[in-house]
Specification:
561 residues, alpha+beta, four-stranded mixed β-sheet, globular
Length: 561
Amino acid sequence: MRYKLQMMNTDYGVGTFAALPEPNLSFNEMVAHLRKFPYDDFMHEFVLQGFKEFRPKKLEKQIREIMRDKGASDPVMTAIMFEACLCHDRLAHLLQLFDGLDPAGLLPHTPAIHIRSALLEDQPLHRQWIELFCDNIFNLAPLPAPDVAGLPLLYSRADLDRPAPVPAADARRALADRLPPENPRCPLAQTIERALNALEKADAFLGPAMQHKASLSPVARLRHWMPKTRCVNGRMNNSLEGIQTCYGRGLTPERAEASYAMEMAERFSSYASFGPKGVLGYATDYPLVHAALDDLEAETLDLRAMRLEVPYAGQKLHWLTGHAPDGQGGTAPLLVPAQLVFLFCNLDEQSLFSALGSTGLASGNTLAEAKVAALTEAMERDSDATTLFDPARCFRVTSDDPEIARLLAAYEADGIHLWFMDVTTKLGVPCYKSVVLGPRGDVNKGSGCSLNGRAALLSAMTETPYPHPGPASGPAPEGLHVRRLEDLPDLSTGSAEGDLMVLEATLAANGLRPAYVDLTRKDLGIPVVRALIPGLEFISDFDQYSRVSPRLFANYLALFN
């Protein structure tokens, strides 16, 4: 089956994509395909979304027919129709037609998490709390106190007790005598030339780089490219392609150029092809092991500690070999599910989540650089998912740097009122969120995380999806205190190797162990890595499948202590 990637929506400045079947298939042809390939997640989701346009009477007739034998003769179709009634409000009243059916019996016949999520007894309560927290985090709405929220508490205070955190500053001090000497990154011109030459040879580009004005970055570039993948795995044999866009932002043209080139290298490396021998085209050979977690003898990613929307339930998955810190300065191999590594991965297996983004994917001039960027991005996403909007943590910024000062003054002169929130978690790695309120009250945000607080804040600022020059924004809150950019904490070491030591030591001191998969491609040779950190949140798109993490709930209760 041939699939194409297509943008379906844009939420908070981020495009969401879906894989659509390229042939013009009838409904019956698509259903026949699913009966033959029940774990084809692309087709499953396309058909499921198509039910949104179904006439309820037509679906009711089909459900009554299939329920004559409790769905036993066509479990694949029964499962997806049940999911349609779960997922689409206009069809929810048809769920009663499935009375007498045990939904758990449908689980082996669908790749998706929809039924698994619905079977969690406390999911309705989580969904109610998620709505409150979502309104606060994304729309900056005030939160009700626990005693007036009108909802049972998800966790008791005893459930939320955790050991005292060890912040990154303490981890860095403990490493002071062992840090390597400073080793600056290679010049931007060298980074740009290497990346663009490699991408050109790999035939990644679709047209030239273009300027865009959709952010606060003084210089911004975009460039289109096209991933092309093939998957031959189990019962599956499909292909995927589609136009994608990479963005680069920075205070100078060179930084914006390097930014988009390295982002394209990262994304180009994150779309994988699969064949009978495993993952194809990488500098490291990645044969796949198809097994359930409990049947594997080798060390594995701590899948039950991953913050999944539904618990892992023993499904057979395809695993490949990544690596993790061994606690002695080296690395040790461990198995990682392939679907947690690659974008739009559609293997012959059930999905662990509703959708996987690019969190923890990063490129670099060296593998250490890529790992540092991947870890800080994972920490940034964890902050997004666990840190509530709190006016007490908000501030404006000034700078002694003439270039930054001029840019901040230009924003104000154009009526764009920029402000920030310190969203650093208890890990202590500086993380900031930038905010510009639109003329109609819409919230435009960027975020950044780095051991260097200045770099984190500037990253958040330049990623804010508000045009400059552009229309005047809404006002910033009154009475915000002012922080100097130069006074923000700086825990960086002057080298990627040293920064990696600090980040890994911080995680280890807090009982967290990252796992990495090296995604350096043979045809690019540019280091790319996916980092996964069991115990931290890696999905921050709050929706009906989201679970309130204990850390988010603890932060909520702390606001009202």
